[in-house]
Amino acid sequence: MASRHPLKILLAEDNAFNQKLATHLLEQMGYQADLAANGLEAIQSLERQHYDVILMDVQMPEMDGLEATRRICARWPRDTRPQIIAMTANAMQGDREMCLQVGMDDYISKPIRVTELAAALERAASKDKGKEP
Amino acid sequence: MIESLIDPEAWETMKSMTDPAFLVELIDVYLNDSPQLIEQMRLGLAAGDVETVRRAAHSLKSNSASFGANRLANAARELEMIAKGGNLDGAGIRLEVVEAEFIRALPVLTELKNEC
Fold first, then answer.
1. What is the widest separation between alpha-carbon atoms in chain A?
2. Based on CB atoms within 10 Å of each CB, which residue in A42, A71, A109, B11 is the most buried?
3. Per-residue model confidence as pLDDT tens digits over A100-114
4. What is the C-alpha to C-alpha distance for residues A88 and A96, in angstroms, rounded to an integer?
5. Neighbouring-strand partners of residue B76
6. What was the ipTM of the complex prediction?
7. Do A113 and B18 lie within an 8 Å CB cutoff?
8. What angle in degrees, to the nearest 10, is found between the helix axes of A16-28 and B50-67?
9. Distance from CA of B92 to the nearest CA of A (A)
10. Which residues of B touch A61 (CB under 8 A)?
11. Looking at the complex, does the CB of residue B62 fall below 8 Å from at least one CB of chain A?
């Protein structure tokens, strides 16, 4: 998948178990994702280099995914910032809306499932292509 | 016995997503992390630290659901919900349920791991 859709991916996730699982699933698709343990680290990573996609856990210590997304969207214009895909275990009504409202582009639910992850990355890759000159 | 503690569909999904060697590694991470999360809940509860309890319960819920350990995930979710409410009334009993469900799930997961 990575050869068809080369993407630079940042995984923002504090939970060691989910880090391990997501990193492995991404590796299986051919992606070497960088890690950030909270929203602040995710923003610091963006300051250092460009990413095409952030897989953003919603519940993180220090700074959660919602706040990090607000700040990223306030700071980087839409065509230069990464696609932000929310990952959340809160299967509650209105969660998806809340993520989209703060500026996230897409949403996958936890537990992480490889088909859902791959589909979200496909969508992100096609949007990413669309914005290139 | 296995069916009631680990949802077979979720387990099969997990197996289909990856290779057996990685699954063994992942179960080991889970079996190592879960008692630590339960300990954090215990300490948080003793200290009246709502946020620590909520966070640890949230992680255990999420991790357990990955394997289809749904009874344990639900017990952790109930504790998370109590902590989310801002106080720890009734959290002690919920934590006991979480611990009991973990002890029940432990041999089943170990068995599934050995079958990988």
1. 39
2. A42
3. 899 999 999 889 999
4. 9
5. none
6. 0.90
7. no
8. 40
9. 23
10. 55
11. yes
